[in-house]
Amino acid sequence: MRLLAVDDSPIALEMLPKLFPRPEFAFVGVARSGPEALDILSAPGAAFDCMLLDIEMPGMDGIELCRRIRALPGHRHTPIIMLTARDDGDTIERAFVAGANDHLVKQNRVSEYIGRVKVAGRLLAEENRFHVERRQTAGEIDGDGNGVPGRHPFHISDDLTIDGVDRLILPFSFGNYLTQLGREDLYRCKMFAVRIEDVTVHYRSTTTAEFCSILATIAEGIAKVAESRRLLMAYSGDGNFLCVVRDSKVPDPEAFEALMARHLRAAARRSRLDRLVGVRVTVGAQTPPCAHRNQRVRRSLERALARLEARQRQKLFS
Q1: What confidence tens digit (pLDDT) does each residue in 137-192 have?
Q2: CATH number of 131-317
Q3: Looking at domain 2-126, which of 1.20.1050.10, 3.40.50.2300, 1.20.1070.10, 1.10.10.60 is its CATH number?
Q4: Which terminus of the chain is more exposed, N or C, with fewer CB under 10 A?
Q5: How do the domains of the chain map onto residue ranges?
Q6: pTM of the entire structure?
């Protein structure tokens, strides 16, 4: 693996390359500031498998650097791990919104640094995830089956990445965000799930551009209805969006669904995508995340999906 470490501390820059043994880590580049890192990344042939960014740097901090790296075409999906001495919820959230995939407190053990870099690199490189830009969903997408409905370069159960949709992050990053929250911040969080009804029908009857446009429009609707700048969400496949809000009051499921229907109708009028007219969603009730860190992600997602399925049954028999 080729790593790039960015930190304004001379001690950290001397130490970080020594943490990652050769030959597995073939190269560890260092930069002392955000602008220096951007110069390195903008050079012809610059290629890195993972980046470690210190959050607290003078001038351009690590979160702003992360945001700018994500704007570089060659590094939109390179794993980024944030390093900081702070573990407050606001800092962690801003890092993930900017495009970070993980967050490490600097006091962690050396073995954890190595392990997290390996996991990030392996998961984000091997998943072969389908990526699409939000602006592309209005037209054709490379590899979308030449616009043939139902012919997609991904399975219905695959999670997708739609770049350019605010607050929509990878499921891998979503899980890391939940894991990194301290107990006090966790108690201020609520989770819920949103599901596209009859998603198989939409998957089979739309082109890839149309299906991705539906996903992006729903994600934008969730952010609009939740009305929270402390919302994070991930699309996990099968029509499911996983959401977490902190210090926010979200409408109850019935009201949320009604507002989503209004959003989808308005989006259909603005766009040329008639498919949006027939799209409906089910919204599960909010639930607190699991407090046990080792089981937090799995149990929290199970809780949110269980509330979602309970809402589906309620609608079916009402």
Answers
A1: 555 554 555 588 999 989 999 988 888 899 999 999 999 999 999 999 999 999 99
A2: 3.30.70.270
A3: 3.40.50.2300
A4: C
A5: 2-126, 131-317
A6: 0.90
